[in-house]
Each structure stands twice: as structure tokens, then as C-alpha cells.
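Model: You mentioned two targets. I'll fold them one after the other.
Researcher: Yes, keep them separate.
Model: Target one:
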Amino acid sequence: RDRPVRFRGRIVAMESQLGTTYLQLILDQGCAQEGRCAVYVTYPGALEASLYATVTVYGHVSGLWQGQTQGGTRLSMPRVRAQFVVADR
């Protein structure tokens, strides 16, 4: 927790509520597991990026996020509290 991180990846889910943007990001690299790694990002503001855009997230690890897909598959991934989210141009 509270470890500073920088991740780059593609936005695969995104929603905004009450001025906060929530993202699920599939990482481009740095995955310790085989396959694809994801992080759940909380950003206090609106983003100029859209779904499937590639972004770099700068922030701090804030714990674990757990949820499920619409199909009922359970998900668990690191939660990142973002200070900056920069979209690729």
C-alpha cells in the first residue's frame, strides 16, 4: 500500500460517478503472471481518454479491488489511486 507506481495500458472498462472516474486497465508490460494483468484505477476527475485508449497512470497502490463481470465471473486486481492519467496522442 501507498507504493508509488506507473502503469501503461489500455482502458477496457470506464465509468464516472460524482466527479470520480473508475478504470480497468490491461497492462502493456510488467505482468508477473502469464497472460494479461489488470489494475483498477480511481481518478478524482474527468478524463480526456476514451474506452480502449492507451494511457499511463501515475499514482499509489491503495489495496485490492474485487468485483465481478456481467457474466458473473469474479475479479480481483490491485487498486491504484491515480494522481495523473496521461492519454497517448
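Model: Target two:
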Amino acid sequence: GLREKDVTLALAKTLRKSLRERGFDVVLTRDRDHTLSLEERTAIAEGAGGDVFVSVHANASPRAELAGVELFTLQENAERQTLRLAARENGVTPAEVDPLQRLLARLRLSEAGERSSLLARQVHREIGSGMGDRWPSTREPVLKQGPFYVLYLSDMPALLVEAGFVTHRDDARRLRDPEYLHAMAEEIAKGVGRFRDESAP
């Protein structure tokens, strides 16, 4: 069957090209077929000093009928993630986080969450309007909040894009199609570009 990580890598490389064409510097946390831990991805992302973090994936489900594009942003009130962020930032274990450290982490997540929501809305709009005519299943991508650790890499605005379900027959066919991946990358890049333009001082 279609492997999630194959789709992810192909989409990431295509997105890199689309973003570079819009003047972005792009650093991939993975550019070949190997697995990195979340901690290693965190180190790469933070070491690059990025302004935006976009994580692209292919979805999977035991329910073969599930299909479509999903976008996720920070779930700002996820206490476990707040605790992990505070612990990592202060070099302590979660059990050693004090109330002030937790409060500061919550404030940072709140600020990042607002910017993440703007980023998500821009990308959501571009995917829905730019791909819906050819691929109707993308016309109304689902926008959600989720406590994904990958979205808490730092205080940069972050977005996770699930480009389709490898476990759904029609989605899997699209995810194998370079034209679909190119179109998805283009619309994500357009949305990130709009976010940049709206965020400029």
C-alpha cells in the first residue's frame, strides 16, 4: 500500500520548491527516507531560526471511508503540552516546573496560537479555493485544533497539514499523483505568502 512517509517526503520537497519560488528560505527537518525523533526535529527547526513551521503529513485511519484534507493548529489550553514546553524551555523535568514557568509558557502558547490561527486561515482559504474545482474533496478542508507535539516546537506560528488519507481509495490515488501534490504545495505556499504579507510591519 501507499506509505504515509513517502507521501510526506514528496510533498515536503515539492513545498520547498514552491516556497523558494516565493522568496522563502526553507529548511526541511527530513529530506530523505529516514526517521527522526521529535527531539531531533525540534533541534533542526529551532537551530534554523525559522519564522514559520509547517508540518505536512498523509493521514491514515482504520475506517476506510474517512477522506479529505485536514489542517491543525495549536491547542493552546492543552495542559500537558504547556507543561512539556515549560520544562524544555527551562531545562527541567515536567515535575519541576513551577507556576511562573507554566504561566510564561501558557502566555507564549497563547501568542503563538493567535499567529498560528491566522496562518491556518490563510492556507485553509487557498487550498479550498485553489484546488476545489479539480479535486472537489479539497473544497472544504477541515480546520481543527490538536495537541500535536510537533506544533509546539517553539513560539513560531505552526501549522500541520494532512493532505489526504492513504487508507481511502480516492485519496490514495490523488496522493500518488505528482500534479495533486504540486497543487497542494502551491496552495500551501500561497497561504504562507499571504500570512507573511499580512504579518509584515
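Researcher: Noted. Anything on target two?
Model: The chain has a mean pLDDT of 87.
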